[in-house]
Amino acid sequence: VVNLRAKDILEEDPGADKTGLGGEGVDVITFTHPKGVAKVTLGATNEEDKVVYAKADGRQDVMTVYESTVRGLRKTPQELRDYKMVNLDQAKATALEVVADGGRLVLEKKGADWQIASSSEKVPADFTLDPGGVSRRLSAMANARGVAVVDQTPAAAGLSRPTAKVVATLEDGSKVTLAFGGATKHDDRDAHYAQGNADAAVYVVND
């Protein structure tokens, strides 16, 4: 809201029938700040120019704002949801298992050092494990977020038999699993169903 900029300020008001600013169906974005309240009203979309008609509190001008900008303002409660899928204290991880593409890799922490406990892929004799690589994977797991929540059962989403999964074992022996299920589409992009331990929801994640 604070950084909202108009594309154009129109010389003449095209009328409420065109702008959609005179009746129902408008969106009002209200911004409360220490000095008072500011308000922006968003009306109809001009599909040809990909702009939305708008008015700002305290001004009589009708303006246009890029449709792509307005999408960032027109958010439903569902779109404001936290899509974090995993609750994981990385410092308490003692093992990390990665199962994907028909392979399995298990990393274990011995003292302060990580080492390969087992691997379906042959490990070269001169291989030295990068502990930073393990930390990055734990961080990626802990920060994993979906792009949407879907009304699917885990079984229907292919999560009862995951196509891939990452499992972290903690100091108390408990396990945290991030599982990936069947393929799907989201906003015309390739995606997969996924589920973590943060809640029971089935998420969609980009490839």
If you compute it from the alpha carbons, what radius of gyration comes out, rounded to the nearest whole angstrom?
A: 25 Å
| Euclidean distance between termini CA atoms | 31 Å
Number of helix segments?
A: 3
Tell me roughly what share of residues is in helical segments: 10-25%
Strand content: 35-45%
Taken in chain order, the helices and strands follow as EHEEEEHEEEHEEEEE
Mean pLDDT across residues: 93
Order of strands, widest sheet: 8-7-6-10-11-12-13-9
What report would you give on this structure?
The chain has 207 residues and is mainly β. It has helices at residues 16-19, 67-71, 131-142, and strands at residues 8-9, 27-33, 36-46, 51-56, 63-66, 93-100, 103-110, 113-119, 148-150, 164-170, 175-186, 189-195, 202-206. It has an eight-stranded antiparallel sheet, covered by helices on one side. The chain has a five-stranded antiparallel sheet with strand order 1-5-4-3-2. Strand 10 and strand 11 (175-186) form a beta hairpin. It is elongated and about 75 Å long.
